[in-house]
Every structure is written in structure tokens, then in C-alpha cells.
Amino acid sequence: MDAASIHLVEDVLLVAIQEDITDTDILDLQDVLSERVSAEGARGVVIDISTLEIVDTFVGRVIAQLANIANLLDAETFVVGMRPAVAMTLVELGMHLPETRTALSLTHAMQRLRAAAGG
Amino acid sequence: MDAASIHLVEDVLLVAIQEDITDTDILDLQDVLSERVSAEGARGVVIDISTLEIVDTFVGRVIAQLANIANLLDAETFVVGMRPAVAMTLVELGMHLPETRTALSLTHAMQRLRAAAGG
């Protein structure tokens, strides 16, 4: 899958979503990510959406679902790199992602995951 | 924009809403605030509505949305200075602002943000 890259760093799966991701790709990503979280015993997942300049309800919902699935598999999950316009759109669409943790950047998310592991 | 002032203090954006803010102003504020939270990496947002003597559903909804957008951008958000009459109106209008954190005053909100940063 070229529409997203997944890398394992310090037991954390980093998922970089590409800007040209399609609806089909993002559903495939849900399958692939679930398998990898489970297979690699990842303790965290960081989903980087900084390439996304716009979102619709479908993408918003799938990202929320990705985070929820990873949480259920016991991987603490952060969405990072959300652009201001994307945050505004999600709120206007009535999607508050209440169960999704956001962090400003990958660095911030990794710091919090390390703090959680050390604590 | 004169209808609201925004100042950065200790990584926290303080937003003071003026009493004569119009519906158009408050929508502009949503854009400006989203951009600034992201650009300055603010870890908190405090929205001071002490000048507002009355609110309608529109203003109530936009304030709730402001708080939700800032939360999505990883800034802990407080609404401060809500007058009793405003709280009563919001409840009567059926707006419970479930995801909006309120604090009595700016001082209380800053204390909680400092405690969160230190913890």
C-alpha cells in the first residue's frame, strides 16, 4: 500500500497518511494496521495526518475508527499533525473525536508515549 | 479584529471576547484562533467571556466549537468568566457544552494549566 507508510520505532507504529489516500486505501489501512498492532505487540500508534489538507465525514470517521481499534488492541493512540482547517471542518461536521487523543507533532506524541511507558 | 484580543502568555493563548462582538466577528475569530493555536504550538487556550451579558444559541454554539477545535489541536481549553445569567440561558437553550471545560476566572484556569504542565 503506497497510500500510507507504516514504520515500527521503539515499539510504536508510525503511520504516515499520504495526501492522495482514497476511501478504499483507508479501509485497507484499517485491516493492515490492526494486523500489525497485534502481530508486533505495539504499545503505541501515532497516525500522522499532516499531509491531509481537507477531510470529509468519511475520512474523519475512519481516522476515529483507526484510533479506537488501536486503543482496543491496547496500543495508546495519537493523531498528530492536524491542520487548523481540518480541525475546523471536523468540528463543523459535528465530529469531535472524543476518544481520539491528539498531539501537536510526532515529537510530542513520542514524548507522551515514553512518559507513559516510564511511569 | 477588534472584537476579540488574543495574547500569548506562557504558551497559553488568552482570548478576550468584547461585548460588541458580532456573528461575523466570532466566525473570523474561529479562523484566526485555529491558525494561532497551530502556529504558536499553544498548549492551552483560555476564552474569557466575562464581557458577554447575554448569549444566544449562535454565540453559544460558536464558543463550544472554538473549544472543540482548540482541543483537537491539542490545546487544553477553558471558558472563563461566564456570568450566572449566561449559564442559565445556555442551560435553558439546552446547550450543556459537555466537552467545554469552564473555570471561574482566568487565574483558576492558568493554575489548572500550570498543574497539568508540571504533572
In short:
Chains A, B: This is STAS domain-containing protein. Chains A, B: Residues 2-113 form the STAS domain. The structure is a homodimer of 119-residue chains. With 119 residues, chain A is α/β, with parallel strands linked by helices.
What labels would you give this structure?
homodimer; 119 residues; alpha/beta; five-stranded mixed sheet; 5 strands; 47% helix; 21% strand; STAS domain-containing protein (chains A, B)
Largest sheet of chain A: 5 strands, mixed
Rounded average pLDDT of chain A: 87
**Fold-level CATH name of chain A:** Transcription Regulator spoIIAA
Q: Distance between termini of chain A?
A: 36 Å
Number of domains of chain A: 1
Rg calc of chain A: 13 Å
Query: Looking at the chains present, what oligomeric state does this protein adopt?
Result: homodimer
Explain what the structure shows:
Two copies of one chain form a homodimer. The first copy, chain A, has helices at about 25-40, 55-70, 85-90, 105-119; strands at about 5-10, 10-15, 45-50, 75-80, 100-105. By secondary structure, chain A is an alpha/beta fold. Chain A has one domain (about 5-110): STAS domain (Transcription Regulator spoIIAA), CATH 3.30.750. The first copy, chain A, has a five-stranded mixed beta sheet. The radius of gyration of chain A is 13 Å and the shape is globular. Chain A starts with a strand and ends with a helix. The interface between A and B is medium-sized, with 16 and 15 residues.
